[in-house]
Amino acid sequence: MPAKNAIKPYLADGYYHIYNRGVEKRTIFLDPQDYSVFLHIIKNCLSPPPKPELIHTNTSKRINLYGQVDMLCFVLMPNHFHFFVHQRGKQDIEHFMRSIVTRYVSYFNRKHQRQGHLFQGRYKAILVESEPYFLHVTRYIHRNPASIITGELQDYPYSSYPYYLGHKQTDWIQTGMLLSYFTHVDNIRFVPMNSYRDFVENNDLETPKDLILDE
Q: Do 191 and 181 meet the contact criterion of CB atoms below 8 Å apart?
């Protein structure tokens, strides 16, 4: 079972479901550029750092957490987001979240000519400790857009789900660990499905009640 909002203390080698929403449930992504900028900020933070000779002065102080924080899956919704991440050290998630939120809020306020807080307080973090729950977190995250789209989940552009289906590729989303559950016979007790897509899109599969959040 997860430890609700277990943000203190963080555990080294811990897996966390992280989420936050706009203050007063306001929209935090107003147009495609906002989504794109937020994803670009995450990509810069989690991708392999560029060679020293290619680093520009204005980017040299940006935090890079490649090898310290692994992004397992994500979804960006109009007024909130979900991440499922793995951290190596005890404070890596704090550094990651502080960096991306600070940069995005600065961009958003400047672009949309506003001031003040964008997010509803500090992000929430749930420590994920059991294997079945580990998988259901990813299913919950990837099914999030179902409430706002009329097409298929794989077509939602602001989710890691297309990467799990092999439609897109990148080096900052780590799909291997989760997909391995669907290739090893020993894991059938956790995932009685033929594929990750079956697992996510099976409407008859019940979502654990404590995973359903007020978003």
A: yes
